[in-house]
């Protein structure tokens, strides 16, 4: 992509972010003949390159990679692309659509311009735009709890985004804090390498990999679950704060069953409540968290059963999951030194940082207020967020629908402004 831009300072649309969401937006804008430019502060697919561990792969089947105008081109639609192939897919997409991406340019401030539009300050000068699309997801700053500072200094601490492989960790046991997708998969990676793992188990749900002869994602897609809109979900907008289900595409795909890991020697703990030097204290919620995750798992199995019965689908029978292991009496504390813990991986997610966007488009937690990515500030949009509109939003499978909708809104605002300008000239 262009490393030394000499572009005009004004654009109809500026897209911030050169990942799959920004590239998909570019595709839709080009289809409509709308002048635009993408600013990417690092490189295309940067987060995929730098914030994933070595054995990382998709947890959804390759067939769900449906960037607009560029469906998955490989020969394993029911496989799970590893990290390097994901990066290659996104980079190939950028080339195929000739996206006007300028890499290595950070957007440092966005302000509304008197009379309409926006002033966009970048690391290479100031630009203006009639409209701006924010395509930088919501995972900006690694989130590590403040009490992490109370751990002894000789225990190494990293965020999950910095983990690469077990060989890069210090000797000794590893404490993984968080059981969302990243935490569970990193714990599995360490466990399979022979490392002793202590996993702090939170409230994330889990999903079967294969049930009754098909990948659960295939069933859920057929059932329309990825088309479920935020306003139709029982939790409404609160669903945007829910953790993703954990499972893996590793080695062809499989369940992640923390109870099985426990049988194999992994130590599971409830929520980490406090740290006092090497003393770790845990809440008495491990059994509840495991049970709730399994309830979601078997709930998905039951929903698939009902779908099969309602549609008269021929599918092999399969029993529902039954727990393999149950925790014993609660052990409220652990001495990290006595347990031989030499490192901690904080799989505690990210927080959003939109502080450079100076517009009244955020709530009290400084998160975007929008409907399907459209804010109350005319010409300002967000895309690539989880549950932007549906469960499929934020995934490769849902980005085409989201960007098509936003591109139509961009085109409407553009037509309105052109008509106003023409009327002003004629008067």
Textual characterization of the structure:
This protein is of the alpha/beta class and 427 residues long. It folds into 2 domains: 10-140 and 352-426, FAD/NAD(P)-binding domain; 144-346, FAD/NAD(P)-binding domain (3-Layer(bba) Sandwich), CATH 3.50.50. It has 8 helices and 22 strands. It has helices at residues 20-31, 46-50, 83-96, 181-192, 216-222, 258-263, 286-311, 399-426; strands spanning 10-16, 36-40, 66-67, 70-71, 101-103, 107-112, 118-122, 125-134, 141-142, 156-159, 173-177, 197-200, 210-211, 214-215, 267-269, 272-276, 279-282, 333-335, 341-346, 350-351, 357-358, 380-382. The strands form 6 sheets. Strands 1, 2, 5, 6, 7, 8, 21 and 22 form an 8-stranded mixed beta sheet that branches. A 5-stranded parallel beta sheet has the order 10-19-11-12-15. Strand 13 and strand 14 (214-215) form a beta hairpin. This is MSMEG_0569 family flavin-dependent oxidoreductase. It holds the Pfam family Pyr_redox_3. InterPro entries: Auxin_biosynth/cation_transpt, CHP04046_FMN-dependent, FAD/NAD-bd_sf.
């Amino acid at each position: 992509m262009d490393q030394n831009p000499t572009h005009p300072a004004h654009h109809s649309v500026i897209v911030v972010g050169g990942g799959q969401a920004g590239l998909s937006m570019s595709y839709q804008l080009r289809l409509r003949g709308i002048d635009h430019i993408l600013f990417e502060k690092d490189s295309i697919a940067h987060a995929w390159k730098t914030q994933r561990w070595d054995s990382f792969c998709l947890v959804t089947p390759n067939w769900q990679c449906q960037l607009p105008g560029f469906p998955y081109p490989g020969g394993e639609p029911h496989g799970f692309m590893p990290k390097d192939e994901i990066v290659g897919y996104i980079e190939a997409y950028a080339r195929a659509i000739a996206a006007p991406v300028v890499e290595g340019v950070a957007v440092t401030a966005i302000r509304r311009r008197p009379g309409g539009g926006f002033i966009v300050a970048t690391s290479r000068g100031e630009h203006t735009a009639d409209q701006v699309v924010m395509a930088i997801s919501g995972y900006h700053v690694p989130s590590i709890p403040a009490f992490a500072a109370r751990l002894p200094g000789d225990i190494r601490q990293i965020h999950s985004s910095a983990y690469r492989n077990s060989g890069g960790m210090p000797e000794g046991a590893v404490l993984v804090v968080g059981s969302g997708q990243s935490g569970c998969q990193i714990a599995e990676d360490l466990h399979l390498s022979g490392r002793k793992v202590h996993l702090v188990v939170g409230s994330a749900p889990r999903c079967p990999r294969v049930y009754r002869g098909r990948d659960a994602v295939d069933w859920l897609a057929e059932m329309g679950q990825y088309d479920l809109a935020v306003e139709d979900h029982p939790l409404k907008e609160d669903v945007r704060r829910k953790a993703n289900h954990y499972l893996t595409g590793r080695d062809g795909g499989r369940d992640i069953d923390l109870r099985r890991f426990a049988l194999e020697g992994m130590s599971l703990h409830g929520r980490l409540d406090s740290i006092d030097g090497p003393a770790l204290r845990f809440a008495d919620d491990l059994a509840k968290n495991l049970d709730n995750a399994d309830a979601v798992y078997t709930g998905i199995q039951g929903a698939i059963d009902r779908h099969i019965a309602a549609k008269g689908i021929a599918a092999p029978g399969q029993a529902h999951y039954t727990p393999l292991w149950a925790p014993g009496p609660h052990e409220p504390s652990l001495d990290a030194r006595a347990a031989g813990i030499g490192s901690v991986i904080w799989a505690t997610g990210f927080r959003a940082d939109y502080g450079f966007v100076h517009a009244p488009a955020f709530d009290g937690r400084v998160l975007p207020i929008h409907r399907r990515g459209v804010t109350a500030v005319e010409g300002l949009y967000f895309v690539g967020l989880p549950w932007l509109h549906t469960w499929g939003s934020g995934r490769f499978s849902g980005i085409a629908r989201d960007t098509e909708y936003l591109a139509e809104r961009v085109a409407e605002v553009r037509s309105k402004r052109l008509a106003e300008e023409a009327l002003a000239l004629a008067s």
